[in-house]
Amino acid sequence: MSQGNMNLTLKVWRQKNEKDTGKIVDYKVSDISPDMSFLEMFDVLNEQLISKGEESIAFDHDCREGICGMCSMFINGQPHGPNKGVTTCQLHMRSFKDGDTIVVEPWRAAAFPVIKDLTVDRSAFDRIISKGGFISVNTGNAQDANNIPIPKTDADAAFSAAACIGCGACVATCKNSSAMLFVAAKISQFALLPQGQVEGIARAKNMVAQMDAEGFGNCTNTGACEVECPKGISLENIARMNREFFMANIME
Amino acid sequence: MSTTSSTNFLQSSLGKKLIMSLTGLFLISFLVIHCLLNSFIFFNDGGLLFNEGAKFMAENPIIRIMEIVLFAGLILHMIQALILTMQNNKARPIKYAVQKGAANSTWYSRSMGILGSLLLIFLVVHLANFWVKSRFTGLPGLDANGNENLYAVMLEEFKEPLIVIVYLLGVGSLAYHLMHGFQSAFQSLGWNHPKYTPCIKAIGLWFSIIISVIFAAMPLSIFFGCIK
Fold first, then answer.
1. What is the value of pTM for the model shown?
2. What is the model's pLDDT at position B83?
3. DSSP letter assigned to residue A92
4. Contacts of A210 in chain B (CB under 8 A)
5. How far from the centroid of its chain's Cα atoms is residue A1's Cα?
């Protein structure tokens, strides 16, 4: 074994399909480089399983650059593992020690049913977006600078909200499986800009209604989502969503 | 995009949160008045001022109406909490094998239901001790000013160590319930602002600590004979 490499015990959720009850299965991996990402470590494990003729572990991944929002593992009790501001693909094995036992589970929420092993169906988010996470008309090419005056603070806050990659870590970590940080980010990125404000009332009402219909829980302001969000989406967005929704209901 | 949802505002998740925060803040306003009036016992005048205050609270028509509003607010707060908690439990039918809540939130912010239930148990004991006696079953006589002597009941109750312990547990639950609830109410109302939110959080923390210490001092000072 190379210097600094480690042997680990993994306790991984295995579930054949949506109907299967599923269970945690123990696996050993050895000679894992600290420079591997967590997903690369899973690639190694899957190679092992395949060479033994066993079924590989299904897990979501796409860009492996921390920007697509596909990876979704709940690692040792935290979404995307122990580090702040990173997705699972950007979590490296140097964050663990030789001999560690690591528990890996899928996102747990009624609105995110398990498809297989560690993959969950997050299309509930897509349905929320389809209810208002867009602008109905073509707003044209990018304007000349300062053609539409927007305060720098608003532009920055809108951009920070737009950084949400829709991974669902907020739902996964929330004790109530609430999707409010996600929905708040998607409402805020438009609510702060003049192009988005035109449809603000319908957007707030429709997206909140769809969020409730999907069976997500209710926010109790524990702030866990903000801490675990790989993109640092702020709780201020949830307060803004509340204001948008209250005003929408007062106006219409 | 046109408005397609026709859900009732008060049945929506955010509507229920709004009710939780408004009833919570209303209950906090009651705590302030309750604490101020009870603090009359610290004048240590044999309860004369305290009984005067109790008489005002019992006879003033506005206070009597507010008593009904208070119970309504409390019941609404509890019913909403129950509905929200049941929905939240349903939102995660399969729990995690490992969940590290301490890494991202305070234990009391995750335990509002338990803390609230403890408060409810305390409240039943508390109402049976004082409110039922003063409103329905009658008090044991008059003080030197000819007012009904609620103070005497207080002195009697807080001689009992078990009662004092129950009160301290109740006040402890209150402290933690408020530490999260106070600032949480403002967030639910949509009031989160870089300038004011740190201030709200600080006020919430100190309010929770100070009001709980004052409430705890009442049974303790009587039990240890500092107030007679």
1. 0.94
2. 97
3. B
4. 5
5. 35
Those residues whose C-beta lies under 8 Å from the C-beta of residue B189, and which sit 6 or more positions away, are A242, B18, B21, B22
Three-state helix/strand/coil letters over chain B: CCCCCCCCHHHCHHHHHHHHHHHHHHHHHHHHHHHHHHHHHHHCCCCHHHHHHHHHHHHCHHHHHHHHHHHHHHHHHHHHHHHHHHHHHHCCCCCCCCCCHHHCCCCCCCCHHHHHHHHHHHHHHHHHHHHHHHHHHCCCCECCCCCECHHHHHHHHCCCHHHHHHHHHHHHHHHHHHHHHHHHHHHHCCCCCCCCHHHHHHHHHHHHHHHHHHHHHHHHHHHCCCCC
Question: Is the Cβ–Cβ distance between A192 and A161 less than 8 Å?
Answer: yes
Spell out the residues 6+ positions from residue A205 whose beta carbon is closer than 8 angstroms to its own: A245, A248, A249, A252, B3, B5
Task: Say if the Cβ atoms of A77 and B184 lie within 8 Å.
Answer: no
- Specify the 3-state DSSP secondary structure of A157: helix
A108·B14 Cβ contact <8 A: no
Q: How many CA atoms lie within 13 A of B101 on its CB side?
A: 13
Higher pLDDT, B131 or A108: A108
| pLDDT tens digits in sequence order for chain A, 252 residues long | 678 899 999 999 999 999 999 999 999 999 999 999 999 999 999 999 999 999 999 999 999 999 999 999 999 999 999 999 999 999 999 999 999 999 999 999 999 999 999 999 999 999 999 999 999 988 788 888 888 899 999 999 999 999 999 999 999 999 999 999 999 999 999 999 999 999 999 999 999 999 999 999 999 999 999 999 999 999 999 999 999 999 999 998
In chain B, the number of structural domains is 1
Residues of chain A with Cβ-Cβ distance to B12 below 8 Å are 208-209, 212, 245
* Kind and range of the H or E run holding A25: strand A23-32
For residue B81, list chain A residues with Cβ-Cβ distance below 8 A: none
Amino acid (1-letter code) at residue A167: C
What is the C-alpha to C-alpha distance for residues B105 and B212, in angstroms, rounded to an integer? 22
The hierarchical CATH code for the domain A6-115 is 3.10.20.30
Superfamily for the A122-138+147-251 domain: Alpha-helical ferredoxin (1.10.1060.10)
**CATH number, residue B155:** 1.20.1300.10
Model confidence pLDDT, tens digit, residues B154-209? 999 999 999 999 999 999 999 999 999 999 999 999 999 999 999 999 999 999 99
Q: What is the residue range of B147's domain?
A: 11-91+107-223
Residue B16 has pLDDT above 80, yes or no: yes
Are the beta carbons of A69 and A87 closer than 8 angstroms?
Answer: yes
Task: Answer whether B96 sits within 8 Å of A74, measured CB to CB.
Answer: yes
Would an 8 Å CB–CB cutoff place B93 in contact with chain A? yes
